[in-house]
């Protein structure tokens, strides 16, 4: 059962609650409902009721179902990137950084396949629905921009020159991770954790190549 909204909440669902708390509760309940039912079968009314509000709280804070779902995916991707950056914050050896990043991203892909299913469902819907695409496009751009900043940070810290420009490197990495999610969902036996980690390590090593031993890193 998703929850019961009392009469006072029905009349004034977000009374006395800060806006950020309302958003937090809605996002938490929406993440649960979307994971349980999928995007298509999740209803705004049920999400709002489960969080203790009326559906008006969803519209006033997110605009609609697409925007709410996009916020969940965007927040999840941002949290994952922040966690990866924190994990390599104290490393200064490039191969060690690459190994750590590949391991962390692999774990997310293999263990959090529910997010992958939802992302695929939303992307497929965006191909046929303009309103959904308008939510997906800026979210994907923000993810690529975050990846570009992370690559730039690693390159600066290690003195390594990326093999391609930052935007292209971010696009390659973004497409690779999305593709690995898709392939792992479709064929988890062949595209297992070892295969995923090996692919990530190979591409990261190509994007951030160490200079020849007789050519010291640039300062």
Automatic annotation (TrEMBL):
Residue spans binding DNA: 43-62
Taxonomy, superkingdom: Bacteria
Keywords assigned by UniProt, alphabetized: DNA-binding, Repressor, Transcription, Transcription regulation
Domain HTH tetR-type, residue spans: 20-80
Keyword set includes Transcription regulation: yes
Residues in coiled coil: none
One Pfam family here: TetR_N
Any one GO molecular function term: transcription cis-regulatory region binding
Protein name in the entry: TetR family transcriptional regulator
Species classification: Bacteria, Bacillati, Actinomycetota, Actinomycetes, Streptosporangiales
């Amino acid at each position: 059962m998703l929850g019961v909204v009392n009469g006072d909440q029905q009349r004034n669902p977000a009374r006395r609650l800060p806006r950020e708390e309302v958003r937090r509760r809605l996002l938490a309940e929406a993440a649960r409902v979307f994971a349980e039912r999928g995007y298509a079968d999740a209803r705004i009314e049920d999400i709002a009721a489960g969080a203790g509000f009326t559906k008006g709280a969803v519209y006033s804070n997110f605009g609609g179902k697409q925007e709410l779902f996009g916020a969940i995916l965007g927040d999840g991707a941002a949290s994952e990137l922040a966690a990866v950056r924190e994990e390599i914050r104290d490393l200064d050896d490039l191969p060690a950084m690459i190994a750590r990043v590949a391991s962390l991203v692999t774990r997310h892909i293999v263990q959090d396949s529910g997010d992958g299913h939802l992302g695929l469902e939303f992307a497929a819907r965006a191909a046929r629905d303009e309103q959904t695409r308008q939510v997906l496009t800026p979210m994907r751009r923000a993810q690529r921009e975050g990846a570009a900043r992370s690559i730039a940070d690693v390159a600066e810290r290690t003195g390594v020159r990326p093999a391609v420009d930052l935007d292209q490197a971010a696009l390659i990495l973004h497409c690779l991770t999305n593709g690995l999610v898709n392939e792992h969902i479709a064929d988890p036996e062949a595209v297992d954790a070892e295969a995923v980690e090996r692919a990530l390590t190979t591409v990261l090593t190509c994007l951030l190549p160490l200079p020849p031993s007789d050519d010291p890193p640039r300062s």
